[in-house]
Each structure stands twice: as structure tokens, then as C-alpha cells.
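Case study: Radical SAM protein.
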Amino acid sequence: MQLRHSPFLMYSDGQGNIYEDQTLYTVGREGWDAFEVPLEDWIELPDGGNLYELPGRRGIGIDVKTGEMRLCEKGWAVAAFIPPAHTGLFLAAYETIEDAPTLPLFCYTAAGWYNEKYYVPAVRIEQDIRQECAGYDAELVQEGSQYLKEKYPNNRLVQHLMDNCVDAYECPAARNFALSRWECPIPSSPACNANCIGCISFQPEEETIVSTQDRLTFKPTAEEIIEYTVPHLENAPYPIVSFGQGCEGEPLLMWETIRESIIAIRSKTDKGSININTNGSKPDAVKKLCEVGLDSIRVSLNSAQKSIYTAYYRPNNYQFEDIVQSLKVMRHYNKWASINYFVFPGMTDTDAEYEAL
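Here is what the predicted structure looks like once written out:
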């Protein structure tokens, strides 16, 4: 549906209620600056999206009469979480008042109200339906979770995935595992060799930012990994097992265990794909994993510019060039290599970033 004008700005009353302000059009933010969002960039908020109140923040909009930008003083600013398979094009635009609380590490996409519907500036970048909200039946997920906990009562990884990732965080990958389909996560490392400013699984106690989930607290054994991944690869439709998840550190620090696991898995089944999500910091380890059967790699990256990458990741005992080399190693072995790109409007859409990519 083509919009005739920008959606109206929304605000929250602080009591769980959200309203539209029909005197203001919603704008978006890139970096520190607010901009009018092109009409063609707005889409209906996809199924699985949510709205957030941003306490201590006043939304910025364009006055429908004067065309000037001003604050909405009626309540707190509102932003949207957009579900997997979509990328936001503009952040929520607001002005922070003094002593406003620190926001948790979520996605804060601009959001507006138009013709009885919520709209966000976003684009769908992945057509795969594996993590669509509509595909999860909560009752079936819980049944599958209970079944797996009973089937593997002594497997710490399975218990972690069901108790934390399914029940507490509603992780799409873990829920698919509970439904015995598609992907199966393998968190494997409690430690990390980066100190990302926005780490979602660990933040220092003195930091005001709160991590959104708890990190794995133990080192899984190859036996624990093999026990539940082989049956998944054997029986699930379009199966893939993935080392490296949001609830852990850097899996390449556990490359010896991962190597042992891959060897054992491939001795029992040749079905499915074995993937690793990683920061790509240890190309020698990637080489050893390729040699025993690793099929694909997805390297996390916030920028293709070394200075920006280093400032955010704050790496320990590796450097930006190691990431590039890890990708080259995968291509040398004719394996699938991709980038998990942290999109941040105002930085990742600059000319300099485009050239670096």
C-alpha cells in the first residue's frame, strides 16, 4: 500500500498505552541526525514485531502544519522491534531528558501509525520462513522442549537450550530444535576474545548497559554435542547444526572440542550442514575445522573499516586481518562464507563503508 503521507508519530503514556499524535509525522534517525523517511521505505510492521516505550525520551516529529521538526511533549517516545528476516532503515528519533534510564540492548527502529496500522521503515532481506513468528505453536514448542529434557536428562547443553533459550528467551533457533525441524543450535564457549561494547551475553558489573541474556557457564564436551546433534541431522527436515550462538562467547576458542565433535558427527551421518557463527578471529582453527567437515561460516561484523571494527569489538589477541583471512580460508576449501552484518543507520550506510565492503 502506497502511503499518502508519513505515518503519525506515536507516544506512550508510561502506563502501557500507546497513542498516535496526529499533529506530528514520524521521522527516522541516522547516526545523531533526524530525517524525513521516504514514503517508499515504510512497510507494515511485520508479524512478530513489537513496540517499545522509551522512558525518559521525547519523540521527534515533523509538524503537519508548519513542516518544522519539534518534540512530542505528550508522552515518551516509541520504537519498534522488527522480527528476523528484516533490516531497519532508520532508528527511532528522540531527545533524551536528564537522568533518563539506560535502554537495554534491543533494536529500536522508527515506528508510526497510519490508517489503523503500525508502520516501520524496513526491508525484508531474507525470504526463508524458518524464524517467522507465525510458524511457532507455543504448545507444540513446550511439548517438544519437555520431550528433549526427558530424553537427554544428563546433557547440560540440551537442558540449557530448553530452560534458557526456549523458555526464557524464546530463541527462534532453539524453538526450531524443540520442534525437531531445520536448525539446531550448539552453544559451545563460555569465554570470548572480544570485548564488544554492545555484547548481548556479558557486560561488566560497573556498566549501566544490561546484557539481554546470560552467557553459557560451562564448557560442553564433544559427547554432549554429539548426543543430540546426530539425531537432529538424521531426522529433521532440511537440517543444520550451528556452533556459535547469542548465549555464549566465541566458539573458535573451543575449536579442539568442535573439531572432535565434527569428526564424530560425520562418522555417524553425512546428512545436513554443519555451520559456525563466529567473529572469525582464528583462521588457523577455521582451516582445521574445514579439513574435517565444516560446511559454512558466518562471521559477525559491525563494519568493514578496521578502525570502526576495532573500536567496537575491542579484540584480544587477534586483529581485523584475521577475520578477512578466515573468510578466505573458507572460500579456499569451496565452503560457504557469509557475513552477519550489524546494520546501524548513519554508519553502515555511508559512502566510506560501502567502499570498504
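For the exam, be able to explain this: The chain is about 25% helix and 25% strand.
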